Amino acid sequence: MTDTHVDVVAAEIAVEQDHLDRVHTELAKAGRRADLVAVDGMARGRTSRTGDVRDEEMSGLFERDALVYNAAKRRAHLEHQHEGLVFGRLDLADGPGDGERAEDREIRYIGRLGVRDDDYEPLVIDWRAPAASPFYRATPGDNHGVIRRRVLRCRGEEVVGVEDDLMVPEAPEDMVVVGDGALLAALTRTRGQQMRDIVATIQAHQDEAIRATDRGITEITGGPGTGKTVVALHRAAYLLYANRRRYESGGILVIGPSSAYTAYIERVLPSLGEDSVTLRSLGDVVDVITAVRQESPEVAAIKGSLQMRTLLRRLAGRAVPGAPTSLRVMVDGQPVHLDEGTLAGIRKQALRDRTRNQATTAVRDLLAEAAWRSVREGDREDFLEAFDSSLAVDEFVDAWWPQIDPREALLWLEDTELSYDVARSILSQGDAAALAHAARETLELGTWTVSDVALVDELAVRLGPVEEAAPEERSFFEIEELDGVEELRAMGSAIEAPAVDHHLSPTSARERLLQGTVGRPDDYAHVLVDEAQDLSPMQWRMIGRRGRRASWTVVGDTAQASWSDLDEADRAREEAYGSQQRQAFHMTTNYRNAQEIFDYARDVILPVVPDADIPDAVRETGVRPAEVTFGDALDESRPDVATVAAEALEALTQEVDGSIAVITPQRHEQAVARLHGSHDGQVVVIDPLSTKGLEWDATLVVDPDAIVQESPGGARILYVVLTRAAHRMTVLRPLG
Predict the structure, then answer these.
(1) Helices 380-389 and 360-375 meet at what angle, rounded to 10?
(2) What is the per-residue pLDDT across 656-681, written as a single tens digit (0 to 9) for each?
(3) What pairing do the DSSP bridges indicate for beta strands 626-630 and 725-734?
(4) Per-residue pLDDT averaged across 197-207, rounded?
(5) Are strands 334-338 and 327-331 parallel, antiparallel or unpaired?
(6) What single-letter DSSP state applies at residue 545?
(7) What is each CA distance from 261 to 229, 258, 405, 535, in whole angstroms?
(8) For 456, what's the count of Cα atoms within 13 Å in the CB-facing half-sphere?
(9) Residue 559's closest CA among 201, 228, 217, 192?
(10) What would the DSSP string read from start to end of 36-78?
């Protein structure tokens, strides 16, 4: 690079720095204005009076809350900016001319939120505004009036670089064009521990998907590295901007495949100025459960299948394990006996048109009528009243028809005979035994699996919400005793009531599993599902309950599926969608992987999935993935996997400055675990399934054949693993 070129670039950076300084000055003013609004709001809520509050004072309190809330929201909005507030500049021909003269051009700066000066002139245009759309849509073939598109690279409040794309055949004489283009510049940047929003480098076909109509179902497909996730997240931010009333009040639910994925992308939407989004992994869609543990592929396939609908319906309707099988009581001097068959008929009748947890009152009425039919002596009303007030009946109902937590019902499957019974004609005995073993393992470990969450949600719908028991009325003597304690306390007695800790930590695995209360699912205005090809049919049913009145954005690639029965999943997906209109966008360009890395991955997937969606990689490094072999730990003549992995990792750190993932199957996890966090935190050790949706500068893939054997989806998951690296990849294979 010549000194002259350096001087030109420095001069262009200085121009942009001057503008950025103006923007931050106005931003500081806006922050002070927000603080003043908050102070004004607090003042409106003050009153010197005590006692009852007048209507005008109530109005002041309301104004205070509204002003303080909005001021705080605005302050948070101003502060939540990442990687530079201003990221783009457009030089446009102002009118029908060609913009040869500077005075015939309009300059627009594009950023994460709109900023105006004291004269209300725009200093920055919000990237979601229509006036910003040429930044993404302009191409040399259809430039939308754009002469030059510039991307600003900032570090905090400092401009550190600029990259230009020229949209006309020749630049005006006074216009400087810098760099090789914004997109390739972005592609060569290192990856961090969280996804960067690439709002500055979104291409025209991606922008069409982002700004498409918000009605119905929007499906975004494409192979690895095509930017599907980024497009979907930017679409969520755009929808909030374009129709804030609907989506901020109704909410947007973003579903990702794993907790590692949600941690990776959680910064993207706040950095785009939006915090009205609920971000969940498949393991924590149900509020009181956070599951990260994975089943074996065989058990996950059983639990995810639509066959579980029938099994869980049976489970929800059966008698509680250990409950009494008959009722024997004395009522109004009459012996009452209801046998097991009679109770089964009452249970069936009670569940005919109501959920189990809402049927307690109906059950008592049905029991009372059955008891009267078995006696038919004396006055009917007197008998029914005596039945209703009987403590023995209360005890029986509590034991025979308790409120059932859906998680507790799922744990009933630990009993192998019960599992056989509810699975009869639905699953094989081997599959039923596998469910029982999985339930016992859950009780032993005290943690749910990701597959369990959809089953709990299904049972929650069939059982209904757990209804809290009404507080018992205290007897006269209890009240008198309490009054005495209060009198002593008022007189200064040293007697103190024992302290009660209402937040005790669970002491057993069962208590940990049953913490909290499962409520009704929230209903959202928009549902965004990423890695949709991985959802089981039962998971589609779970997500569908949260999007009954929602529009949807769904992202996926069937070649990367970890769920094997895609036809069954498609049926459940269609049921979740309903009859809404559809629109589809297909991404064809791989922006993530170097050509050499993607060629390696392509050769793995095509023999297995001949019709896989193969995108075009846009850059080359000239370096093919390296293959290294390791020996058995018992064979001292050859280095084992831990030694070879450490050496290969050391070599990768010499080639890339950014993040590196060691992706390992379970059988080698212990051997390479010590590499996690090494090289100043540059390295993460991760399992194959958790790599979904993630990317690194380099990857070290351990034992591909073992990954295929252990993973649901087999070679499809290996394909995912092999497409996570942007710049370098090393593959470790066992000898022999």
Answers:
(1) 130
(2) 988 999 999 999 999 999 999 999 99
(3) parallel
(4) 65
(5) antiparallel
(6) H
(7) 11, 5, 30, 15
(8) 28
(9) 228
(10) HHHHHHHHHT--S--SSPPHHHHHHHHHHHHHHHHHHHHHHHH
- Phi then psi for residue 276, to 5 deg, are -100, 35
Paired strand residues for 688: none
Model pLDDT for residues 464-481, shown as the tens digit of each residue = 999 876 545 444 434 444
What residue type is assigned to position 533 of the chain?
Q
Give CA angle at 448 (447, 452), nearest 5°.
Answer: 170
- For residue 35 the two structure tokens come to 């603080």
User: Any idea what the Cα angle at residue 50 is, between residues 46 and 56, rounded to 5°?
Assistant: 50
SS3 per-residue string spanning 117-135:
CCCCCEEEEECCCHHHCHH
CA-to-CA distance for 667 and 702, rounded, in angstroms? 10
The CA-based angle 496-497-503, given to 5 degrees, is: 125
Strand (E) or helix (H) holding 116: strand 115-116
Angle between helices 307-317 and 297-304 (to 10 degrees): 70
- Contact yes or no for 195/230 (Cβ under 8 A): yes
Structure tokens at 148: 């030059």
Tens digits of per-residue pLDDT, 371-426?
999 988 888 999 999 999 999 999 999 999 999 999 999 999 999 999 999 999 99
Q: How open is the CA angle 472-474-476, to the nearest 5 degrees? A: 155
**Cβ-based burial of 139 (10 A; exposed 0-12, middle 13-18, buried ≥19):** middle
How far apart, in whole angstroms, are the C-alpha atoms of residue 701 and residue 434? 31
Structure tokens at 255: 């579903």
Strand partners, 220: 555, 585
Tell me the C-alpha distance between 646 and 667, whole Å: 17
Residue type present at position 228: K
Residue 226 dihedral angles phi and psi, to the nearest 5°: -90, 5
Both ends of the chain: CA-CA distance in Å? 50
Q: Roughly what angle, to the nearest 10 degrees, separates helices 429-445 and 297-304?
A: 110
φ/ψ of residue 699, rounded to 5: -130, 150
Antiparallel, parallel or unpaired: β 122-126 and 105-111: parallel
What is the enclosing helix (H) or strand (E) of 165? strand 158-166
Beta strands in 504-550 (DSSP E): 526-529
C-alpha distance from residue 686 to each of 191, 327, 657 (Å): 16, 56, 19
The residues pairing with 339 across neighbouring beta strands, listed in sequence order, are none
Q: How many CA atoms lie within 13 A of 153 on its CB side?
A: 16
345 touches 439 (CB < 8 A):
no
Measure the CA–CA gap between 546 and 548, rounded to whole angstroms.
6
Q: Which helix (H) or strand (E) holds 605?
A: helix 595-605
DSSP-derived pairing of the beta strands 115-116 and 122-126 = antiparallel
Kindly state the tokens that stand for 131. Answer: 């006036």
pLDDT at 498: 39
Backbone angles phi, psi at 155, to 5 degrees: -125, 105
Rounded CA-CA distance 526/29 in Å is: 35
| Percentage helix, strand, coil for the chain under 3-state DSSP, each rounded to 5 | 50, 15, 35
Q: Which two tokens stand for residue 634?
A: 């018992």
Using DSSP's 3-state secondary structure scheme, residue 453 falls into: helix
Largest interatomic CA distance in the chain? 111
pLDDT computed for residue 489 by the predictor: 40
With vertex at residue 480, the alpha carbon angle to CA 478 and CA 485, rounded to the nearest 5 degrees, is 95
In this predicted model, what pLDDT tens digit does every residue of 127-174 receive, in sequence order? 888 898 888 777 776 788 999 888 888 888 899 888 888 888 788 888
Q: Report the 10 Å Cβ neighbour count for 54.
A: 10
DSSP 8-class letter at 524 = -
Q: Are 85 and 52 in contact (CB under 8 A)?
A: no
Residue 335: which of 298, 371, 291, 284 has the closest Cα? 371
The answer on pLDDT for 121 being more than 70 is yes
Beta partners for residue 730, in sequence order: 626, 700
